[in-house]
Amino acid sequence: MSDEPDADELLDELRDMVGASDDLESVEPREAFDLWMQQQEMADSTAQSYRYRVQPFLEYCDEAGIDDLSDLTTRDIKEFEACRWNSDLQRNTLNNQFGTLRLWFEYCRDLNAVSEDVFRAWEVPDLSKEDRVNTAKLITDRAQGILDELDQFRYASREHVLMLLLWRTTARIGTLRSLDLCDVYLDDGDRQRLRAELEGEGFAPHVVESILDEASLPFLYPRHRSESETPLKNKTGGERVINIADWVADVVRGYLRVNRSDIVDEYGREPLFSSKKGSGRLSKSAMRNWVYVLTQPCEFGGRCPHDRDPEECEAREHGQGSKCPSSRSPHKIRTGAITHHRDQGWPTPDLAQKANTSEELIEGVYDQPEQLIRGASRREHLDKLDNSDSS
Description:
Layout: H1 7-22, H2 29-38, H3 44-64, H4 74-85, H5 91-110, H6 116-120, H7 129-132, H8 140-153, H9 158-169, H10 173-178, E1 184-185, H11 188-200, H12 205-214, E2 219-220, E3 242-243, H13 246-259, H14 284-294, H15 330-343, H16 348-355, H17 359-366, H18 371-378, H19 382-386
Antiparallel strand pairs: 1-2, 2-3
Helix pairs in contact: 3-5, 8-9, 9-13, 9-15, 11-12, 16-17
């Protein structure tokens, strides 16, 4: 039998050498990750995404018997990366996973738990705009068709108001779910109520006047209320005035007058989207399923483009709306709505404020222009070339 050490023994020796030379601190992978997460300020949904992205690496460490981050080598990182590349994951998924892992490892490096070489071993794949964007947005023609059907057959229903506000406000579904009746300002009485609320919350007079100057009726004013389970993604940074058209306000008034269930939630609040089930506030999952169903081509009697029988299609079963290939999530409505706003000439800075996102995201991810429409909107600038004195 050969006395030569096997590959695992050599790897162990290499780990010992790296750990010794760098004089690293000993810490378990899961402990380091928990420490990192405790220091992050993020929405619960973002934290859940981070845990989901890092979990495969923690499982890799368990399987490899790595219970100390200081034992990691660049080879471990490359082996893990290779496993993920061979798992048929999409490039943008790997970008998210490796990017999050690199952020965590930056913290681990500062914690002196991993070497600089191990930190730098992570290679986050570059993405083209096509990679970054899932182009299956809800296009304007489909959105308008759905809203026309709702206007004709389910006017001022809960699902009508939900779909209408998603499209017209570009808001996230969590933002709409957070709305209470007191966050909806439709007439002058509501405007005076807002003044009293702002003064009661201790805002300086000039701040109150600034908000009221911006607040042209009718509008929505979502608030960050994490203590009663309706946080905004960007916390208090997500609080802003969202103006709505008069005719949209008329639909909301009809819903409030006739179709809204007069219910107080478990925190004593009056949700705009109330429900007779659960806590009294319509859940995100229920809102998402409504959107999936409403964006199915057959919902209003249209022909199924997938040659399915609506009577037997699994996507028509309760809670299974997302299984229709043509259905769209609330996020895809947001993408389509932002694109529609840009196609109609909305400046990026104004739209970023309305949608509560960055200008970079508007231009790089959300804004997926309809090229012919955007080209036509630029035609008005041609005269400026002829009127210029410069050659």
